Amino acid sequence: MNASSVKLHPSISKMIRADHTHVLAVFHKYRTDAAPRTKQALVDTVCLALEIHAQLEEEILYPAVAAVDSALVSKSVPEHEEMHRLMAELRGLEPTSAGFDETFLELMRTVIHHVADEETLLLPEAERLLADRLGELGTQMAKRRRQLMLPRAAEMTRNAVRAMPTKTMLVGAGALLAGTYVLRYALKKSS
């Protein structure tokens, strides 16, 4: 990989930490008393982000780390399997089903534990052991992420809109209409 392409992307460890931050932020938006549509959108957002993130780690980070110290990833793989199991269970439930909130909260606990392990143990060691490859691995991860996300762009957009509170959408629509009115008025005046 050439040096210029490596410099265009952050290191793999920074990208993984950014993914963790994104998922944790979505977790904070979840409320058990939220509308079913909102709960479903947040769960769909988290599941999609975790699926892509886990696949990236399993394809790129874990093999690179295992090549120098296989013990470092021995705990991560079973944690991923548990996350996949919980996500499959969630996808089979309706947001109004008994057990939906409980299963999501269990997924949250599992992910938070996994993130803590990765950020305190795995990533610092990976940064030490793979210091000369972090940029290259980040470039690989960015390329693969685009490949995984592109076919799911519509789904991601739909989830983002569905997860947005109605008040926020109304304020945004109002601002858009007001902006359009002001722009038309300014264009008429300048003609």
Description:
It is built from eight helices and no strands. The model is unreliable at 1-6 (pLDDT under 50). The protein is 81% helix and 0% strand. By secondary structure, the protein is mainly alpha-helical. The protein has one domain. The longest helix is centred in the first third of the chain and has 33 residues, at 36-68. The chain is flat and about 60 Å long.
Summarize the structure.
The protein is mostly helical. The protein contains eight helices and no strands.
What would the keywords be for this entry?
mainly alpha, 191 residues, single chain
Helical coverage, percent range: over 70%
Order of helices and strands: HHHHHHHH
Number of helices: 8
Structural class: mainly alpha
Largest sheet: none
Shape: flat
> Kindly state the mean pLDDT as a whole number?
87
* Total individual domains: 1
Low-confidence segments = 1-6
Report the end-to-end length measured between terminal Cα atoms.
54 Å
The whole-angstrom Rg is 20 Å
How many E-type strands? 0
Strand percentage, roughly? under 5%
Give the helices and strands, then pairings.
Blueprint: H1 3-7, H2 12-29, H3 36-68, H4 76-91, H5 100-129, H6 134-149, H7 153-163, H8 166-190
Helix pairs in contact: 2-3, 2-5, 2-6, 3-4, 3-6, 3-7, 4-5
